[in-house]
Each structure stands twice: as structure tokens, then as C-alpha cells.
Structure prediction request, 221 residues.
Amino acid sequence: QKEVEQNSGPLSVPEGAIASLNCTYSDRVSQSFFWYRQYSGKSPELIMSIYSNGDKEDGRFTAQLNKASQYVSLLIRDSQPSDSATYLCASQGEKLTFGTGTRLTIIP
Amino acid sequence: EAQVTQNPRYLITVTGKKLTVTCSQNMNHEYMSWYRQDPGLGLRQIYYSMNVEVTDKGDVPEGYKVSRKEKRNFPLILESPSPNQTSLYFCASNLAGSTDTQYFGPGTRLTVL
Prediction:
């Protein structure tokens, strides 16, 4: 069974701080990795994708990938209350596999 | 506006009463899929379709059927719903080979009594 593991949280971060979300995956053939944001009662929304080892930055978001360690992370800088949501990590190997999500709360 | 629509958004039904959840996308995407989301289990794929008349099982297909007669539509059919199919269902679509283009529908909350 190919798995994607995330800490379910909740993770609480003060407003303005850096939120760090982590994910590990078991399928070594996975080539593409994604972070989705899901607000309560809403559908997942793709916010970051990463394909190569290293960092990828988009605004306040930075995704990091380490294929040797099978590890993906998402950093959110200058956290805002609107970032409070559940963040889903997903890996694309033969198919797209999702983790169970980490619930993030930004404390004003 | 690019979107995936699902209907109904909320449904309460009884065991054994056949139901269909519709899904439609207006982006000419080849790939469509259905997921269910349950607390602690995350998103699990039920069925997917790579194009018209091409469908295949995902991780949890038991108790579900799908069809893909037109590119834009991908209905999910529960022939005889049971309480363990109570869940939040999402339809999604993307261009073939491009998960970056994936869009999710708004979700259908199904309760089977």
C-alpha cells in the first residue's frame, strides 16, 4: 500500500510566524508532489506543486522536496488568520495519493 | 468560469434506495475522478476515467458505479447505498497527465440512514 503520511495536528502558529507542514511518502516512483489547502466544508484547492529536489517559492509559500528522504514540506511565511485550514499533501506515482491532512490554526 | 459542478450538494437517503450524484466540468478535461473523504482517512479515490468510455477502479470502488458517456459528465451511482457510504464526496477533473490543472467540485455530503 503506497502511503502519504502527515501529522494530523492541530498545529497552532502565531500570526506573522512561519508555519511548517511536513509529509513523507512511501512510493519511490512518485515524481510529482502537491500541497492542497482545504477550508472547513470546502473542496481542496491546489496551492503548490513541486517536481525536483530543492525549494520552490510562490509568494508566502515555499515547498521543499527531498526525494532521497522521501520528504516534502510546506512553509508558510508571515502566517495570516486566513491560512487557517487543513493542508493535504499528495504524491503522484501510478496514481495520486493523498495524506490525511494537517489542520493548521493561525492565532491572531 | 472554469468549474466542476456537483449535484446534489446535500443528500439524506435510506439504505437500498438507488441514487446518482452528477458531476460536470466545462474545461474539456480528459481525466475525471471521484473521491470520498472521511475523518482520519483522508481523500480516497473511488473511480476514475481517462476519457469517454474509459473508466477504472480506484482504491475503494466497492458499492459504486460510474459511467462516462460524454467528456464533460461523470456521474457516480450508488445502486444500493449502505450506511458505510455516508461520506463527503468530491468529483475532480484535470487535463490528462497534468495534475497541476486539477479542479475539485464543491462536494456532496451524503448521509445514508
